[in-house]
Fold these 4 entries.
Entry 1:
Amino acid sequence: MYSRVPGAPPGESRALVGSLWAGPDAVLTGAAALRLHGVELPRATPALRFLVPASQRSRRSAMGFETVRTRRPPTRRVRGGVGVAALERALVDAGRFRELTRAELMGVTVAVLQRLLTTDDRIAAEIEGGRPAGTLGVHDGVRAHRGGAWSCPEADLAVAVEGDSRLPVMLLNPELVAEDETIIGIPDGYFPEAGVVLQVHSRRYHDGLDASGRDRWVDTVERDNRYARHGLVVVPVTPTTLAHDLPGFLDALVEILAGRAGVEVTVRVRVNAA
């Protein structure tokens, strides 16, 4: 394949050109492979890394292509005419090669698990089978998903609360019911002893219409009033605040919980919620 335009080829064709450069035994991995798997990434990652058998040599090109030798050849998939590593290998390699930050890796991990593109067990097996260096973000994402996080901002919130020794245990996505067994809702986060609900308000994750034709954003905001009617305090937070003023938000949350000390909470968590 040849291009009349100097420099690196644009878009998906770059991965195809890179695979021709890397050779028939090469397998694309890392962030570039995740993108071909249909995974949305938080930012562009210019490097394209291809895994090759240990019998071959590692090399680099001026266009940002690189081959890396491996003694553990990945399971090969074909996406857009390019041989790519299985999603789990690509995800963990994005951490091993430092292509994504720990926080970004956590968010992507939650996203692929929530979309059922892979499973906790398959990711764990991939981590155990290779180098653990750089995989903390993947561990964070798996732990947050197992704890009930449904989105990247919720995962960020869960990790932040868990890491703050001033805060009690927060439940993720619990089903709350009133004394008459009426379902109140499923908040993003909940402190049961204080009756404090945390809601991550993001248009990105609550956009569009639901199955009944209701605006998801309007329904999300109106749901806050439902919690308040049952004596719960709703603390809203946006992904922007979590990203840029997390310490300030946690300080405010500590004060709110302290002000709710000793309050009687009649709302309960339904243990057998799905």
Note: The mean pLDDT is 85.
Entry 2:
Amino acid sequence: MKVLIVGTGIIGVIYGWALAQAGIDVTHFVRKGKKDQFKDGVNLDVLDERKGHPKYNLTKYALKCVEQISPSDGYEFIIVPTNMHQTEDALKMLVPVSGTASFLILSGNWEGTECIDQLLPRERYLMGYADGGGTIRDGVYWTNLGAEIHIGEVDGKPTEKLEKVKTLFARAGMKPDVQENIVHWLWQHAAGAIAFAIGFAKYGDTKTFLADKELLRQCVLSTKELYRLCALRGVDLKKFPEAGFVNFPDWLVSLLVRWNISYRESAQRYSAHAASAGSQQEMKHYYASVMKDANELGFEMPHTRALAVYLN
């Protein structure tokens, strides 16, 4: 199988590495003038949560890069692991030269699929979200690679391309977590992350952020508002166990968040990207979209509004 991955960000690189290690033919699409930056590959420091793989892996990934593609290249899948605000531009660039390739869009989502549907027929794309993350430290990709990948058809119906993507990632040791309603899964996942990412921006440092009990409580209260907004948009939160903590006492949620990030190494690596400029830009996009929906639904979100001051 011939796979193209958009960019050399954290998710694109660790998934490219994992797929290439499994014998998949992987190429990365980069902006003009960037190809030579990767001629010597990239250095990885991976916390690997896949079964049967070394937990810690310091290695080099000799990635292949191209600066342009054409239909004759014969890519079967194009993986788009972009920030939410970058996805439309990436698709506009690639769809006209993609031939018959199917797309796996690994981006956050709050606004639904209307924009994507205008660029691609649904039979040519899947949506999903990566189980992993990290940042670049002194030129090294400091990351964690999770044991799952969250994917689904927009219409919720099994298809041949869904089965191919499941096989693709299973071959690389990642269990496909197929969602019946991937759009709603993405919305509730965003609801659980937005407030903490915005609050983190106040300090840009995990320990300082977690030590600010009042700010952490504000993030918890905002998260509960975001989950309620999801419910108002039609998401059945009972179908998503990870959203269950919305019913816990505020103090308990704060304690769980503090423990999770302080003591779980995978959470520390996963959340490290929140300090990046790209993440902050994405949070601005999320915030604008969230408040637009809240205003249209007449739903007051005082705790979420209060966090806006930390969006630089």
Note: Residues 277-297 form the longest helix (21 residues).
Entry 3:
Amino acid sequence: MLAAYIQQPGPPESILIGELPTPAPGAGQVRVRVEAAAVNPIDTYIRSGVVKMNLPTPFIVGCDLAGVVDAVGPDVALFKVGDRVWGSNQGLLGRQGTCAEFAVVDEEWLYEIPEGVSFEVAAAGALVGITAHLGLVRDAKLQPGEVLFVNGGAGGVGSAVVQLAKAIGATVITTAGSAERLEACRELGADVAINYRTEDVAAWIKEAAPNGVNVWWETLRMPNFDAVVSALASRGRMILMAGRDARPEFPVGPFYVKGCSLHGFAMFNATPEEQRVAAEDLNLYLASGAYRPRIGRTFPLAETAAAHALQEANTLHGAGTLSGKIVIEIPR
């Protein structure tokens, strides 16, 4: 099978395109004929070696996938050959990745694709959707009628947070850095979209949420905790999911006096059961149109290195050249 893989961690150029043996499913595993994969920041961290994991050699890159069940191993109960499926959490913790013509996946990490949803959309919404659901539902316990703020509502995770928060029934305030991205946020359902380059974000938040923000979802690597705590309502919750090496100052006194709570998590540490709860809700939202993952760029499998370079430029260097998810299309 054709695959995008590395022999050892390195820059995007270390990704090779070539033939590898087609894997066979073992007990409890499903082989998926991959139609689409997606690129996430964690993919670039693992490929570069910034995040240390035990990797098989060669290592196929990629976490997300969507495709068709091609074969099933013994004891598979949830899927049969021909089922359309999507999944995430591959390419992690010793598991092979998804940027290949075929991927063998434990069935506990796979979910059916709702009718009418394309492979590209299912792949694009996988990791970011599960991440958003875990943070909003499991951790922050966002309730209808509450106010949520998310930095960067046009980004991969940010756009998922906007849509899921609206589906739950929250008022959503977000930011973006251009007129085009602000309009994208509004199309996704944001009630207030603020240009962080030209407008006073704190003033806008205070006007839109005079009683404070109930849930603050932070996508920035270096949060300004003074600004966050000032904006939070009593018993407000803050979600952290970025900034591995960040060491910002933290206003302990104002935070605990307000009775606030701070929740940090990495999606890939969630259990299969927790992720399935999220995926089942996401499928409902995908089917109804409440969740519409944004695709910013598509690349063929042969250009996976270029896709990684684009993701890295925007995640680490603020290039501002990507709005939405990167999808890798697998040729047939």
Note: The radius of gyration is 20 Å.
Entry 4:
Amino acid sequence: MSNFKILITDGLDESGQSILRASADADNRKDISADDLLKAIPDYDGLIVRGRTKVTASLLDAASRLKVIGRAGVGVDNIDLDAAKKRNVTVVNAPMSTSIAVAELTFGLLLALARELPRADAGMKQDKWLKKELEGVELNGKTLGVIGFGRIGVEVGKRAAAFGMNVIAYDPLISEGDIKRRGAEPVSIQDLYAWSDFISLHLPLNVQTRDMIGKLAFSEMKDGVRLVCAARGGIIDEAELVAALNSGKVAGAALDVFGVEPPGLTETVSHPRVIATPHIGAQTAEAQSRASEDIANEVLSALQGKPLRWKVN
């Protein structure tokens, strides 16, 4: 066994912990506080986090031994990538592990939104027979606009096509030819807004995408559009979403992510035409196992100087 020490702060499936402990000293300190983490971090060569732990410049300043940060999942907006790069700390993630889980949740939200399933279930539990009030819409023949046509967007597109939907996509980082080969019709963002009956977001949160779905975007959308977001909180301007819901411009929204998490009982969460779930996109047994194994192997590879599959910075 090497002398490498790895700290796990947000929990990790046992399969991943076993891989780590076969080659290093791994400490699982799930839910460690920010203050305690700041005190502990100087002793570690590797750090594995999920979305809860904030890896700030101050934390990195204290991490005198740190060589690698592993994100057990996809999004790395909780990690100061610039600060990590300046300190020669490698950041890796596990982008392949949760794609199916997030795509399946997205499509589940899409169906729930189309048929008002949460409202139907809540009514039954209150002994209310809301049959006449619950007239939904069919997915067959509708247009789904996918913004961000990477791994997850493609999987959502496949499921939509199986339901008879017309799939269009916008992704400035992918060529039109590649979008077509992946199963969608490439369009401009303006045409996507104008033509889509449903819109699904699959983007990272960064300077370009923060509040991307705001007042201007809503004004360009088809009346009665329905939105699904299981990507990152902050891409949708929630105040503008509420305004669009209240005006009828947006018929409904299904959100698994929020600008602040947990959001509390905000106007967005409590809106009658919003389906809200607590960031459960990657919360399947299969995805958690894959993520833990992928990130364990990647972090060990970084520490051992081996080639990396998913280096972020």
Note: The two ends are 28 Å apart (CA to CA).
